[in-house]
Amino acid sequence: MTAMFVDDVTKVYGEGHTAVRALCNASISLRDNEFLALVGPSGSGKTTLLSVIGGLLAPTSGSVVIGDTTLTHLSKKEQTRFRANRVGFVFQGFNLVPFLTARENMTVMASISDNSRKDIEERADQLLGELGLADRSDNLPEQLSGGERQRVAIGRALVTDPDLILVDEPTASLDTELGTQVVKLLASEIKSRGKAGIMVTHDLRMVEFTDRTVEILDGELLTGSDPAAGD
Amino acid sequence: MRIAIAEMRRRRGRWLSIVGAVAFIVFLVLVLAALADGLFIGTTGALATGDSDALVYSTDGRRSLVRSELPISDLPEIAAVTGVADVGALGVLLTTATAATAPFDAAVIGHIPGRAGEPTKLVDGRRPEVGEPGVVLADASLEDEGISLGDTLTIVGTSQSLSVVGFVEDSRYLLAHSLWVPLETWEALRIEVRPETARLGAFVQAFPILVEEGADVERVAGEIDRVMGATETVTTDEAALSLPGVEQQESTFTAIIAASFVVVGLVIALFFALVTLEKRGQLAILKAIGSSNVLLLQGVLLQALIATVAGYAVGFLLARLLGFILPSTVPVAFLPATAASLFLATVAMGGVGAAFSFRRVIRIDPASALGGEA
Predict the structure, then answer these.
(1) Global pTM?
(2) What CA–CA distances, in Å, run from B94 to A105, B126, B143, B170?
(3) What's the order of all strands across the beta sheet hosting B207-211?
């Protein structure tokens, strides 16, 4: 089943002769239980595309459908609520709330999403165990290693049981070994839950853990490979 | 809300600094307000805490108890005015009194016991009877000077001795200790201290009045002046504010206190502006993962509320401690009503200060959380 569909999305910054076309007629779809890598050099438009898919940025034209919801038809307020409940984010450089413990960084979603606190707390405890963080749950981010912080960030993205996981350069602050572990873990968590995920990365070594790779260059999506399909 | 509280709990140092800054300003404001109230009560207490709705002065007295002179024979005529429930009499003699202690400034106030204008806050002993000779109801501030019930006071320049039969609170006049005596005693003392007034006959300096229940004080005052012709009747509050320097003193303190509150607002505004700037990335992340602006602004408001309430509590305790160690010669009065209104003003200024960072929070773009910008 199609988890996400981007239809002919264009994003232009500025107007007139200063206009910059960040995305040109981008179309892409993603199935449930599929983990896609979006690769491309700096400035190619991959972060812009991820922002549009996540409802953080309005496209100039085109539409984004996640599950049964056309994200681009929602108001800003509705998009914020949609993100809280249906989209999980893993950011570059961990980006945890520094004064919250590992567990609180996950359970913070109880205040933000429509999930009950009880559900979120149960899921957070389960994720802490799965991610190997059970004994680090009361530690603040500054007391955690880089890999542990990124695992907490993965937990936060999954704790609301979202339909779509958007991952932005997850290995940017990690060495190769840790980066590999984190992406493998991410892929495993996404796949084991039957979710759809998109990972923006410039590290081509990480694409082997995804089902499909799509390349973006100067705002245009190029044909991608589908390792799972044997392309 | 939980995030806001967790931030304050785990980043105590930073929040203690803002609590400390608010506490320091609140301490200054409360001490200033206590001085203002203390001075106001010390200056106007004899009128402000007297049992009256309005005071009748002679027109040429220009609302001054010392300048005003009215024949005592006017009393029945004022009592007959529609709306007047009771009329008393007041006369003031600013002089010096002595006891076993050192001489002190005294305002000997003649009044009719049991009638309008008598001091209301009896804290010890009893009131004089009408026409009772040789007794005085003293202001409780004299207890700090070592004077007790039964002590004998002498008014300098007179042959009379007065026995202290009771103490009343907050009844001073122009910062002098008040000595409330029956009108007859006051008249005798006045003639001894100021013999030139003997030829004026029996006069008082103001008639305090109480109006009937439900009657409009202003209207009754106007009616008295119309009937009497040469009187100026003002409400007791107006009479208190008309005492020399009182209005200027009040407006000066009010201006300083208002300026201090502006500083509270600015300190909070600056603090939250800096905190918001520092937390920009973190706020962008929270917005990206679905935090609404309302949720984030509620957190800012809650933090401002906690900081100002805690700052007020610390400032209040410090001010009260200072109140206990200040010598009794410093006129300070910590009034619950003043403390309550300053508390509300502090919290309101905290909210206003925090509100300055609202626009900054709202304008943070959640998209900046991606691409490593946060």
Answers:
(1) 0.77
(2) 73, 24, 20, 17
(3) B84-87, B207-211, B54-58, B231-235
